[in-house]
């Protein structure tokens, strides 16, 4: 089979990360990975020059990786799209479902339907109509202005988008995949601005949620307690994290309330999921994103949630040079989205 390469591009609020895979064999083979800082204010701006700066950074990153392709799969942040798993639909044919989803989406999308791109995936459907039959659907509504802005920047970066999906969909592909033997898993993606949650069962996303609490909130708490500059607070966070025996426990006191917000939301997500799926309880939690490697975080989550906790490995389904294993392991949590995008298949 002829080689087909694909760039997975994760344009985050603080860093742009890319992974390039060759799909000529199974598993796909890692060709290159890299990252650069995101020019500020990034996608938060509508200014032409800001968007050109962003496109320039992407183009420089891809060029430096000596990409053999211009084809790219890109992600949209959960906080900028509207995602919902709808459980309460009756048995519906494909034609009936399309119309029903449009009505259902009006309940959670706070803008006119003509201003969004509506996509859905049937997760489960009863074999026939009956009093207890139901259809379960994952719905994603993307505001057209946001999608247009992403496509415009990619065009300026001389890239050809072949797939656009949410970050959590990409992460679920690289961290869990479609293995039917994987335990039901809660992915917690700890980003700079937000924390995203998704429960995965047999490769299907059965619930999602996003909160506006992330790594930057932790850094700000440290700056306020110690009167540090942002850069110094970041360094202390990365080195000491939630380790009780460091700095007389003062750093933990500063950030524990914020991390507790994240674990409390995780409990709510698990409860909401298990209320609809009693026969498939969550068995493990995978931490990913830039904040996943915070010292002491795994133990904190284990004590809070009472479940198996592990840092995500987005490279497990990818062929890679053994000489790169140490580097890949050290950076694993930050590349889950980019790797999942690059794993996308036509």
TrEMBL record:
Location of the SHS2 domain: 6-175
SMART domains, per database record: FtsA (SM00842)
Gene3D superfamilies: 3.30.1490.300, 3.30.420.40
InterPro entries: ATPase_NBD (IPR043129), FtsA/MreB (IPR050696), PilM (IPR005883), SHS2_FtsA (IPR003494)
One Pfam family here: PilM_2
GO term, biological process aspect, one: cell division
Protein name per UniProt: SHS2 domain-containing protein
Higher taxonomy: Bacteria, Candidatus Daviesiibacteriota
